[in-house]
Amino acid sequence: MSKQVKRWNIPVPPHLDRQLKEFIKKNAYKTQSEFIRTAVRDRLKEEFERLEKETKSHELQVTFENMNLAKIAKTLVSKGAKCIMCGTLFSERDIESYDHGSGISVKDYDKPQWVYMTCRKCHYQSALWKILNKFQRRAKGE
Ligand SMILES: [Zn+2]
Fold first, then answer.
1. How far is CA 67 from CA 63, 71, 106, 111, 142, in A?
2. What 8-state DSSP symbol labels residue 124?
3. Hey, where are the domains in the chain?
4. 10-residue stretch averages of pLDDT, the chain, 142 residues long
């Protein structure tokens, strides 16, 4: 480890301390510090991924605020939306949606909607966020 380190001095309840010491004794982690560092790293990775997902769904929400499905389709098609799998251009009637907890709010629906477009050629269903990801990558020249 590098010489530049910060030291964490954090209070813990006795039972947590006991449990961890017991676990360290029985398992492969060499030290308590190593266990804690690994645990924090894993948790941070999870939390960053969750945050990224939330940010993405928030961006989607803002982009399509107050639109109904037809308007969303019109917007996507006007930007040249293509099937993620085979590259066939979508038409406005290819859009569909269903109730889904991680979806976006769409005008005329009470529940959040998972929005996607179905390819007429290969039948692959491209999720809205994937189509938008493609737009972003294209805009960046990737
Ligand atoms: Zn396709």
1. 9, 6, 6, 14, 29
2. -
3. 14-63, 69-139
4. 83 95 85 92 93 75 84 94 96 96 90 94 94 80 74
Contact 81, 131 (CB under 8 A): yes
Pairing of strands 113-118, 125-127: antiparallel
Strand blocks (E) in the chain: 95-104, 113-118, 125-127
String of DSSP letters for 76-87: HHHTT-B-TTT-
CA atoms lying within 13 Å on the CB side of residue 125: 8
- Ligand 1 center to 41 CA (angstroms): 39
Residue 141 Cα to ligand 1 midpoint, Å, equals 22
